[in-house]
Design a protein that fits this description.
Helix content is 27%, strand content 29%. The protein is α+β, with helices and mostly antiparallel strands. Strand 2 and strand 3 form a beta hairpin.
Length: 77
C-alpha cells in the first residue's frame, strides 16, 4: 500500500491534460456549467481518439503549489 501512495503522489505522474496531449487529437475544451462557474479542477471536452469522436471528462491537479491552488488540488467544487 505505501508503494501505491508513492506512485499516486509522484510529481512526474501524468495527469489528464498529459493524457489528452498523448492520446487524442482535435481536443476542444468546454468551460462552465451555467449554474456555478468554470471549475478549474474539472477538464471536459470533445476530441478524437483514433479518428472516432469522444467526450473526455476528468479532474486535473497542479504540478506545483500555485497550480494546485488554482485547480483546488484536483477536487471539484
Amino acid at each position: 500500500a505505501p508503494q501505491k501512495v508513492l506512485v499516486a503522489r509522484h510529481p512526474q505522474r501524468p495527469y489528464l491534460l498529459d493524457y489528452i496531449k498523448m492520446l487524442f487529437t482535435d481536443f476542444v475544451e468546454l468551460h462552465g456549467d451555467r449554474n456555478f462557474r468554470d471549475d478549474p479542477a474539472i477538464i471536459g471536452g470533445m476530441a478524437k481518439f483514433e479518428g472516432e469522436p469522444v467526450v473526455i471528462v476528468g479532474h486535473q491537479k497542479g504540478r506545483n503549489t500555485k497550480e494546485n491552488i488554482h485547480r483546488n488540488f484536483g477536487m471539484a467544487h
